[in-house]
Amino acid sequence: MRPAPDSTAGNWSDCASGNLVIDTTVPVVDPVVANLVDAVAGGRVRRRPHGRAASRYATGVLIQTRGADHGVAARIARAEWFIDTDPGKGKGHALPAADGRFDSATERIRTVVSAKRWLAGTHTLYVRVRDLAGNWSRPTSAKITVRFRPLFADGFERGNLAAWSAASGSRRLRVTKGAALEGRFGLQAASAGAAAFVADRSPQKRDSYRASFVFDPNGSRTGGEGQVVFSGLGGGGGTLFALQHRTSGASREIRVVARTPRGFAAGEWLELADAPHAIDIAWFAAGDGELDLYVDGTTAAQLRNLRNGKLRLETVRLGPSANLDDSARGAMYLDSFTSSE
Ligand SMILES: [Ca+2]
Ligand SMILES: [Ca+2]
Ligand SMILES: [Ca+2]
Predict the structure, then answer these.
(1) In the predicted model, is pLDDT for residue 2 greater than 50?
(2) The domain over range 28-146 is classified in CATH as 2.60.40.10
(3) Which residues surround ligand 2, an ion (CB under 5 A)?
């Protein structure tokens, strides 16, 4: 049915005669089976998942299912997966056919994908398939729970800073009941003038790192600078990533920045209400390195392709540590700090 090429634009050949088959039969995909496995090696399972339980912090997910198409010209041509939120048909992560080629009416799928950059917790993993004519199946799904090796946690419930590796500007840091966002105690850190932060040195040459904490600006003012309230540092003391907070007039905003070979990549400034917020930050060093910010459980920023594969995280700082403006005022509350690989 393709028009014959013609050197003169606008001239079309007669249609060739023939039978035209239009495939409107939507393919289907079997219920997905998703299991945690220990290792990912080029999409293959390095260790057999059968008869051996995956370790507690496994980050490979073995996906198994089968797509089937029916009727005339039936053929499965493509498969994809995604977690939690549907990115749109054709915009998921591609899945290979188990036999290496999508060339028949039914295709088995058996592959391992990495969950290393997922948020800890329970996710819904979806798979759908597409036929040659472009019809997508409805997705089927499976629940899968990932967890990551813990590094350090402190909710300030001992009433002091003893759990931390160091504290800077300790007269400006106070563990108080008034600052408790969870439990009985929280950290009150002065926003004004000079540094007021606690440091944790447990990351030690880490190439993947996640931290979560509760942050309440508590009416503090930053004086217009993007005050650093949480940051990760490398061996030489250079900043690898940071969460910044700034106020100007009635506006209050946060953003993340991450080191690249050419300086820093910065996320958009995001409006933040003056109230307690659950902050999650995930940093990954790799050629396609990444920094993710979640606010109150929702993705707020994703900086990708950071080309930061040579960087290693040594220490993190919680509390105002840089871009400290003389006109900053007040004190913020921080609580419930946890971190993992
Ligand atoms: Ca079909
Ligand atoms: Ca095949
Ligand atoms: Ca607490």
Answers:
(1) no
(2) yes
(3) 97, 99, 101, 103-104
On whether the CB atoms of residues 79 and 97 are closer than 8 A, the answer is: yes
> Can you name the residues that pair with 168 across neighbouring β-strands?
197
Nearest ligand, CA 181: 3
Ligand 3 geometric centre to CA of 210 (Å) = 19
CA of 171 to the centre of ligand 1 (A): 70
Does the pLDDT at position 55 exceed 90?
no
Query: CA-CA distance, 291 to 89, in Å (whole number)?
Result: 26
State pTM to two decimals: 0.82
Query: What's the topology of domain 150-340?
Result: Jelly Rolls (2.60.120)
Query: pLDDT at residue 51 above 80?
Result: no
- Supply 289's token pair: 């390195």
At residue 159 the predicted structure's pLDDT band, cuts being 50, 70 and 90, is very high
Residue 292: its H or E element: strand 290-295
Distances from the Cα of 241 to the Cα of 91, 154, 166, 293, angstroms: 29, 21, 19, 11
Residue 6 is predicted with a pLDDT of 44
Separation of 176 CA from ligand 3 center, angstroms?
Answer: 9
Q: Whose CA is closest to 254, among 232, 278, 237?
A: 278
Give the start-to-end residue ranges of the domains of the chain.
Answer: 28-146, 150-340
Least confident window among 12-21, 133-142, 271-280: 12-21
Count of Cβ atoms closer than 10 Å to residue 144 Cβ: 18
Please say if the pLDDT value at position 10 is more than 60: no
Q: What is the whole-number distance in angstroms between the Cα of residue 250 and the centre of ligand 2?
A: 60
